[in-house]
Amino acid sequence: MKPRYLACAITLICASAAHAATQQGGSLESRLSALEQRLAAAEERAQQAEQKAAAAEKRASSAEQQASKAGEQSEKAVAKSSAVEAQSALSSGIEFHGYARSGLLVGDNGSGTEGGPYLTPAGATGGAVGRLGNEPDTYVEVNLEKKAKLDNGATTRFKVMMADGQRSHNDSTGSTSNLNIRQAFAEIGALPSFKGAFKDVTLWAGKRFDRDNFDIHWLDSDIIFLAGTGAGAYDIKWGDKGHSNLSVYGRSYGEIDNVNSDVQSYIYTANNYYGPWQWMLSGLRARDNDAKSNSGSDGSIAVADKGYHTMLAYHGDSFFGLRDGTFKSALLYGHGLGGEVKGLGSDGNLSEDASTVRFATYGTTALGSNWSLAPAILAQQSKDRYVKGDDYRWATLNARLMQGFTENFALAYEASYQYMDLDPNGYNALEAVDGGFYKLTLAPTFKAGDIGNFFSRPELRVFATYMNWDKDLDNYAGTDSFGKTGFEAGGQWNFGVQMETWF
Known about the structure:
Elements: H1 3-92, E1 94-107, E2 138-149, E3 155-166, E4 180-189, E5 202-209, E6 214-216, E7 221-224, E8 227-237, E9 242-256, E10 259-274, E11 277-286, E12 293-296, E13 299-302, E14 306-316, E15 326-336, E16 355-366, E17 371-383, E18 391-404, E19 409-423, E20 433-446, E21 459-469, E22 492-502
Antiparallel strand pairs: 1-2, 1-22, 2-3, 3-4, 4-5, 5-8, 6-7, 8-9, 9-10, 10-11, 11-14, 12-13, 14-15, 15-16, 16-17, 17-18, 18-19, 19-20, 20-21, 21-22
């Protein structure tokens, strides 16, 4: 190739290269500039996003605070509402409680017959023989209560109890009604000005059954029954496990022929508790009661105008320490007017030398899922009770067994035996007798539920009862049931139906 051609070629090549470089440089600058713009735009968008995120976080935080405040307000509102409801329930609510039983008792001749848990001669001195298949009456209790709690923490309670008992089966019993007010009292408690041992004391006044009473329900026998019109204080605490209940009750013994007054008996009582132990001590005084006398084979004897009574009881939380359940035992003693140890202060004919000792023990336990057992033992001796030289001794053994078959049906079995050795020594023309009485009952029982609970009610029962006694008992009195035509020793069948309920 000639040199000038070669030079031209080189020149063309260089020019092309320069042009390409020029074009490439311009394109790079453009791209760099566009990239910077995009970066700036992205940065701006990022800042806007951060601002939006910050604003959103602020709104979320504000919402959370508002929600927290709303929650707190809601909790306060619920708590206030609960407090208002509780206060309203105490301040405005009236509680309604009741007990009732009613049944029909038919003898084996298809007509009426004798019955009652105190049917035997010993019943006059408190010897119950069992109520299952043995009650021909209708008895109703209606209890109304109003409770309140004041702003200062003090509490109030008012209770009234109306009751009526009937042996008539008619729908209208106005002419034979025993409707009466058995309780009407008021309590005040948790008084803020009371301190120390009296901090939790409850004061009461009116007519009432004492809070410390307890009984064997299925036997219809009180262990101790203190009632009347008076006043008292419950829960005076003198230790971690100890407290005392103090009371005074007034009762009337009725008119005395040669004394123009209604004899008032006053009972001053201290019930002292330490753990499961209860020690009761009472003194009794009756104005003018000694103006009358009782007559017996040894002449007349003065009726008591004073007396004392004491009881030591144990309230167990097991079935005699053998298994789950409950049991209670009590030993009672009374002298003079305290000689009626069960219904304290209820007998105004006791002599000034009367003395009585009584023992009672009973319990309840579940024997598996379908069985329950409730045994009881009572024994009593009373000497010089009404006249000098009289002697009343008796002992009762009783047991009720419940067998559940379905959730609504059970069989109840009850057996009672009572031995009596009674010597009235001429009092009220009563004869000395010595003998035994027994009663056996089978009662198909229906419940709405909770069939395994011995004390659940209501119950509807049908029953068959067989009872018999020693012939000697027919001679005790010409005015009682025993020995009457159609009710003599040799065996008696009773049949019937009964309902019992409480709530």
